[in-house]
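Exercise 3.2. Students should predict the tertiary structure of the chain below and write it as structure tokens, then compare their answer with the key that follows.

Predict this chain's 3D structure.
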Amino acid sequence: MQFNEGAELDLSQVSDQRGVGGRVAGVGGGLGVVGLIVYFLIQQFTGIQLPAGGLESGGLSPNSQVESSQLAEKCKTGADANRDSDCRVVATINSIQAFWTDQFARSGRSYQVTKTNFFRNSVNTRCGNATSAVGPFYCPADSQVYIDLDFFNELRTKFGAQGGPFVEAYVLAHEYGHHVQNLLGTSDRVSSRTGPTSDSVRLELQADCYAGSWAKAATTTPSANGQPLITNITQEDVNAALDAAARIGDDFIQRELGGGRVDTTKFSHGSSAQRQKWFTTGLQTGDPARCNTFDTNNLG
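Answer key:
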């Protein structure tokens, strides 16, 4: 994946909190133990639901400072995105939100641009406190995305994924898929949380499909200054994303990281094959309307 070197980056869409605090926030229900990282990722990878059990409410503490000055200094154009991983994430977020701004406008709606928050170790959100063990997540209460960027290393080392820029883009596009679902009211349809045909699985697979829809249009979607941010996505990039999708399927995680037995009644995100199928559906059609996981009995 390559970025348009002359395109300007919009830093207003991110908040860098990696220099804030240092306290590890506790997650309710006795689940805030670093050693349970695999459990958290099974339940929470790119999901909108934080662990149950009484998360403390709130946002950044009053004395916290959001440190984004270093990003602003080094991340100015697509050329910076081609050589710096932080800037690459900023450019990807800009591209994803430009796509959804256009899609909403086509249907007579207004898309609400939102922030992605970079954090390290722990973060306070309006959904509660969370540690890095939760993985990337979207908080519907404040309509923002949260990610410890070290997660991308975990995806390679813990899950054996190939990794790479487009895998990072897939993860981010999935999270913004949840933002779209929140704006459209789709998230309110979730009543069943687990099971192979549960609402939770349908929501996650739709977010995968939305990520594919963005990817289809990424090289032609103009940013605010009129230029596409992404100039090239290769088949190798797509293969890496499909590899990642397979490794965060419920069946793969249960089999390879959770003891070896696959229990479909515990599914919350979909199988590896389903995640690949729905990302591919979005990628091939480029049409979010085809991401109708709630309207079909055959989830693949």
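Discussion points: Strands lie at 2-3, 14-16, 116-118, 122-125, 128-131, 137-139, 144-147, 230-232. The longest strand covers residues 122-125.
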